[in-house]
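This section describes the prediction task in plain terms. A model, or a person checking by hand, is given the sequence of a single protein chain and must write out its three-dimensional structure as a string of C-alpha cells. No templates, partner chains or ligands are provided. The sample shown here is typical of the held-out split.
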Amino acid sequence: MVKLKKYNGFLKLFVIFLTLFFIFSCSPKNYSLTKIEGKQLPITEKGAQTPEIENFIKPYRDHINKDLDSVLAYCPETLDKSNGKWQTAIGSLMADVCVQRGNLVFKPRENKTIDLCLLNHGGIRAILPKGNVTTRTAFEIMPFENNLVVLGLKGEQVQEIATYIIKEKKAQPLSGMTFTIAKDKTAKNIMVQGKPLDLNKIYYVATNDYLANRGDNMNFFGKSVEKYDLNYKLRNVLIDYFKEVDTIPVPKDIRITEE
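The expected answer:
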C-alpha cells in the first residue's frame, strides 16, 4: 500500500513535469537580430530577359517612346549652359518661356503680370541640341517634377537677386531684369521690364517651387509677401512652348554687363 502511494506520487510529479514541458516548449520564443549579410547584385543588360515580361511591357514601351520621340520644333543651334559667364542662351530661353507661358495662367487667374523670372543654373540638366526638338528633349533638360511658382517680392528682395547672382558667379537663368556689375562687385543700373528698380514696389517673380522654398540658398524668396503656385510643371512649360513654335528663337540680348 505504501509502495502504491509512492508510485502515485511519482506519477503525479511526472504528469506535472510533462505538462510544464509542453507549455513552455509551445510558448512563443523571442528572437533578436544579431547579424545581416548581403551582397550587391548589379542589374546590367547582360542579365537574361524573361520573354513573358518583355512581351507584356513592349506595347507600353513602344507607345511611350513614340510620344517621347515626336518632333515638336526645330533648334537652329546647340544651346549649352556652359557657354556663357553671366548668362547663357538656353538659360535666357527657359526664363523667357516661363514668363511667357506663366502669364497665360497668372494673368487671367490673378489679374496680375509676371515681371521677371529667376531659375537656377544647376536645374538645366542637358543641352538643347541643334536639329529636331522632341518631347524627350524636354524631359532630358528638365527631368524634375518642379512646378512654376510666382512670388511677390519687394524691390529690396529683387535687389538681393542681383547680389546673389554676382556672389554665386554662375549664369543663372534670368528674364525681365538687367543690371551692371560694378568694379566693386555690386549691382547697379538694375532695370525691371526696362524701368529702374523701385524699392517700394511689389514685383512678381516666376521661379520653381524648389527655389521658392529657399533652395540653392535663394533666401530672398523666403521674404516674399505673396505666393502663387500655378500647378504648371516647368517641363510642361517647355513642351507647350515647343509645340507652338516652328523654329526656336535663340536669345542674343545682353542682360548682365560688367564695368
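For orientation: The mean pLDDT is 91.
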